[in-house]
Every structure is written in structure tokens, then in C-alpha cells.
Write a structure and sequence with these properties.
Length: 180
Amino acid sequence: MMRPQRGKVKELPNRINEKIKGLKEVRLVGDNVEQGIYSFDEAMKIADQLELDLVEISASAVPPVCKIVDYQKFLYHQKKREKEQKAKTAKVVVKEIRFGPQTDDHDYNFKLKHAQGFLKDGCKVKAYVFFKGRSILFKEQGEILLARFAQDLEDLAKVDQLPVLEGKRMIIMFSPKKGK
């Protein structure tokens, strides 16, 4: 006895077997068949003889490209490929460094060393001056501080975004230079 389906029925990413409708002929590809153009009925017979599924790979091609494979195995390999591609894509990590408008030299140098380490590790750096209360009157000091920071990091990083005041923060963005 079959259980009733709950929720949405999962849509398959590729059309298979009888779900491929309205095709007169298809181009068969794959390891276990003679490649070429076949009528749809002939392609289905070949898939039945091999006890495999006829899977539509490219519906936009003329004629549409189909492959004779075990569909579950096909989905498994497709997910595995997608996972590998996702792992290869570069993940951008942004590290934040916060200053006050009257940051001392010691604190500045400490934060500069951290920023240099982050850039050497390949991370982006977002440095900002946070203005509390009336310290917003010292916008020029914040801009000078960020300009000095940019100058000290110029051999390791390039400036993505010049200092911009957003609310109570003046923000500058750096990304590491290639080859360092």
C-alpha cells in the first residue's frame, strides 16, 4: 500500500523516460550506446533493453540530447560535481577593524599589524572609525586616520572603497594585492 504524499512533490531536475514528451527524435550520447540520432521510440527501446533510464541532458539542442544511464547514479554524480565546484569557489572573508577618532599610536600600530596579517591570509579588511556622541565633530581626524591606515597598507592591499561616512561610521575597504 502506498503512503499518501505530503507537501509538495519534488520536481526532478531532468526529464526522464515517458516524461520526455513530444519528441520525434533525440541525439543519444553515453558510454553504453552507439552515439547518434534515434527516433524517440527507438531510444526508449534501447533504454528498456539495458534496463536503464533515458535522461534528457540538453532540451534546447536540436535534436534534444539524451543519455541512457541509471538516473539515481546520474543524480548522485551531478550533486557530487556541484559540491566540488562549490568547494573550489573562493570564499571572501571580511575582517573588521574599529578605530575611535582619537586612537593612540600604540593602538593604531597594534591594529595595523592585525590588518597586515589578515591581508597576508587573503582576507578583505573593512576598517572604520566609529564616532560616539559629539565626536562626530572630528570627522577630519577620522578621515586623516583612515588615509594614514591606507598609506601604511599600500604595499599589501589596494583600496576598494575610499573613506565614506555612513551614519556614525567612516568606512574604508581593502582587498589583498595578488602575488603577496
